[in-house]
What we know:
Alpha-Beta Plaits, 38% helix, single chain, alpha+beta
Amino acid sequence: MLLLDLRLPHCHSLKEKRAVVRPILEAARRRCSVAAAEVDHQQLRQRAGIGMAAVAASASHVVALLDQAERLVWANPEVEVIAQERTWVEVPG
Length: 93
């Protein structure tokens, strides 16, 4: 799982924030094949907490998917990444 804490300095309303966050989430789902949602700071207009998750047979495939999703967020000029965290859940096998 990848958690990203974002700052959206140019958003002056929740509507503007949604217009920035929604395309990021949709692109991550479509291009990176990850589950993505806004998970924190929903009521703040200049902050967003985004969570992304992936499941795969190998850890290397999950790393590749999350790396791709992370690059997508970092490439967006409308957001500043304040913090990021990766959490792993492994199924014993």
